[in-house]
Design brief:
Blueprint: H1 7-16, H2 23-45, E1 54-58, E2 64-66, H3 67-81, E3 86-91, E4 98-99, E5 109-117, E6 128-136, H4 146-149, E7 158-164, E8 168-173, E9 178-184, E10 189-194, E11 205-207, H5 218-229, E12 240-241, H6 247-257, E13 260-263, H7 278-291, E14 295-297, E15 317-320, H8 322-333
Parallel strand pairs: 3-5, 11-12, 11-13
Antiparallel strand pairs: 1-2, 3-4, 5-6, 6-7, 7-8, 8-9, 9-10, 13-15, 14-15
The structure holds 6-O-phosphono-alpha-D-fructofuranose.
Length: about 325
């Protein structure tokens, strides 16, 4: 077995050997890693920690907040406020951006996150996770405003997610491949367990919430009908379907064995945007997927090229095995 190295050693190697990441960014990623360990601990307690169920409030999305949504958001805010590497934060759980309090030093990065993705799975013990994205603050910025966060996904300097499942894993890219760390609970350390993850270009597995089929636009309906027809249809091979309703878990499966994940816009939304959020779900996942040799579009263009207009804007998402994403995207263009 190859010698295991920690997240810290991996990041220092990236910083020192490859000059890929500045020390401030390394520190930021380590702080986020520590926060994800704390969230994993809180999630793992379940009913014993009296952290299940609803918080009795709604977030900016109009979704009922779970206690663990609020706890996870607080953990990330508190862990990152004092470090001196951030100029501001934004979260799915907060309507406006969260500037760094004046009593703390400011840094040059902006951090966005979905603190606990897949909340509908919390109370039934199905994998959930944290998704995060890091941007550089615009040059000359003093006090951050929402517009400073509205940068296309190509400007991300780091992105990652944690999955709180049978294992707790942290998957990270800083633009130099995708690497996976598994939490060693005895040592409390993130240990490198997979380097340079690669998504197979072809797959026999697709992920979509099929209960929305009657609302889909024709290109999605055509793609899904073809994969459902399997070896009897134009694809000439049988497909399997998975839908965990936790994006982090579906994406992690795809990173490990290929697949195509789809959350399309459908006839229910007049603005044709879909459900998932661009800044702290689609962009970080698109950066990771592309770094692993996959593709990510909104059916029309590369997700990373989209110029954001609003902090919580939604976007249609097709991501995963390159050849399948290109196929379903091509159907949108016919
Ligand atoms: P649906 C979780 O709420 C989430 O944002 C993603 O993690 C997941 O892929 C999707 O929504 C599930 O949506 O409509 O199937 O419940």
């Amino acid at each position: 077995m190859t010698k295991r190295i920690s997240l810290t050693q991996h990041l220092i190697e990236q910083q020192r050997l490859h000059n890929k990441i500045p020390s401030e960014l390394r520190l930021l990623i380590e702080v986020v890693g520590r926060a994800c360990k704390s969230i994993s601990h809180a999630v793992g307690k379940g009913a014993l920690g009296e952290v299940l169920g609803s918080a009795g409030s709604e977030n900016v999305q109009g979704e009922v907040q779970k206690k663990l949504d609020v706890i996870s958001n607080e953990i990330l805010l508190e862990a990152n406020e004092w470090g001196g590497h951030l100029a501001g934060m934004a979260s799915e759980e907060m309507e406006t951006i969260h500037p760094i309090p004046n009593r703390y030093p400011k840094g040059e990065y902006l951090l966005m996150f979905d603190p606990l993705d897949g909340s509908s799975n919390i109370d039934v013990n199905v994998s959930i996770g944290t998704i995060f994205s890091v941007l550089k603050a615009p040059d000359g910025m003093t006090t951050p405003s929402e517009k400073d966060f509205l940068q296309p996904g190509t400007k991300q300097v780091a992105a990652g997610y944690a999955v709180y499942g049978p294992q707790t894993v942290l998957v990270l890219t800083t633009g130099d491949g995708v690497h996976c760390f598994t939490l060693d609970r005895e040592m409390g350390a993130w240990v490198l367990t997979q380097r340079d993850m690669q998504i197979p270009a072809d797959t026999k597995e697709f992920a979509i919430n099929a209960s929305n089929a009657r609302h889909w636009y024709p290109p999605v309906k055509r793609y899904v009908d073809e994969v459902l027809a399997g070896s009897t249809g134009p694809r000439g091979k049988d497909f399997n379907m998975r839908w965990i309703a936790s994006m982090v878990a579906d994406v992690h499966r795809i990173l490990n064995r290929g697949g195509v994940f789809m959350y399309p816009a459908d006839a229910r939304e007049p603005d044709k945007a879909g459900k998932l959020r661009l800044m702290y779900e689609a962009n970080p996942m698109a950066f990771i997927v592309e770094q692993a040799g996959g593709a990510a579009t909104n059916g029309d263009q590369r997700i990373l090229d989209i110029q954001p207009e609003k902090l919580h804007q939604r976007v249609a998402v097709f991501l995963g095995s390159k050849n399948e994403v290109e196929r379903v995207t091509s159907y949108h263009k016919e």
